[in-house]
Amino acid sequence: MPIYLESVATAFRLMASGDQDLMEILLLSMQVSLTALVLSCLIGLPVGAFLATRRFTGRGAVIGLFNALMGMPPVVVGLIVYLHLSRSGPFGWLGLLYTPNAMIIAQMLLIIPIITALSCQIIEDLHEDYRDLFTSLAVPPGKAVKAYIIDARYSLLTVILAGFGRAISEVGAVIVVGGNIDHLTRVMTTTIALETSKGELALALALGVILLIIALAVNMLASWLKSRASRRAYA
Amino acid sequence: MPDRLTPIDVTGLTLMSGGRCLLDGITCRIEAEGITAILGPNGAGKSLLLRCLHGLADPTSGAVTFGGRPGEASMRLQQSFVFQQPTLLRRTVIENMLFVSRQRGIAEADVQSWLEKVGLTALAHQPARLLSGGEKQRLALARGLLTRPSILFLDEATSNLDPASVQMIEAITREVAASGTKVITVTHDIGQARRLADQVLFLARGQLIEDGKAKSFFSKPRSEEARAYLEGRIVV
Known about the structure:
Chain A has ten helices and no strands. Chain A has helices at residues 2-17, 20-53, 59-69, 74-85, 100-137, 141-151, 153-168, 172-178, 188-198, 201-231. Chain A has one domain (2-231): MetI-like (MetI-like fold, Orthogonal Bundle). In chain A, helix 4 runs parallel beside helix 8 (172-178) and helix 5 (100-137) runs antiparallel to helix 7 (153-168). Chain A is globular, with a radius of gyration of 20 Å. Chain B has a single domain, classed as P-loop containing nucleotide triphosphate hydrolases (Rossmann fold). Chain B is globular. The interface between A and B is medium-sized, with 18 and 22 residues.
């Protein structure tokens, strides 16, 4: 028990002191995960809406594929990105391996399936509700997709926050493609892995506490938004 | 000025589903003006016929012409459909109206005017889904009429509503019909059909049993099914 108390105390001490290394790690973690999240939303939400509202041959297989990809092991994603970005890989000339950009790509591959598959389910329900109205009003497909995303915004926000949770807590892929290089690609999760291997449990746990606080805050925000939306009949 | 979409001529309209004939060779002319009521017992195919006319359901065979021209998707821009269960966007009352007005380039003053007409001005910034059943239907009607349609389809738009809302919707329906909008309404309410209709189409078992002036339909129904229906007997 003392080690937990000690680590919590260390966590708050580090945060209160504004420790430069810690802040750098925190900042990079947020920067990488938020960038991956925004880019994944730009791709995942329209694709999810498209799959939810259009009928075409193989649609079920595509949705099944996205569902399956939600459970893809991060180290496998890391390995795939590594193979493509390594010097001998097809995109080696870009020189992205062991940079934050490589970590963003890896996180995107992990969260795009989550955002696509879950938004597809949510928008599909809304589409059932709106289909006749939109047909009657002759709403063009592009405007319909925009309307679905706007009207499902609170439910989609929960999906987006789930994607963020997956990205910020990810370690397997970013350690493979980022290399955990100090002051360059070291993020919270990779630091925890490193400090644990060095036996620096207090610091590792302190970072774990910070990660937990972020995860908790994100979940509380999601719950609050959802209940607020339900109360106002927007959900 | 858009081309007239009336009268509507229905020829041999048939709709089969799951081996069952839901609409059976319906042929009729829906008059160019006034209010046409589609009456009949449950399962007669009234709503389905209305959906076929508006293009929300595809008939297996048969044809519908509007003002002599074959029906096409673009004609929906001159039509509005009010559903039995009003479909409202998960937005405020006014945003539901603005969704349509922005799409069709309609002035915001018209939005305000319609909200006032249906008595929803005070609720303009309330979430639409929190309105009562009557308020929701009035909003759906205002949204439908915002585009000044040539044809207004009402699918049991007043069922299960409070008397005040029914009265308001009937008054607006009469007003728009008088101003030149063709109204086609499906209703279970014989009293309402008596109050509103100029023409009646009576359906049973997916077939058109009677088609004629409302006055003669209610005073001298020609078929046994129509007589039974008007007397409140069960029509199988």
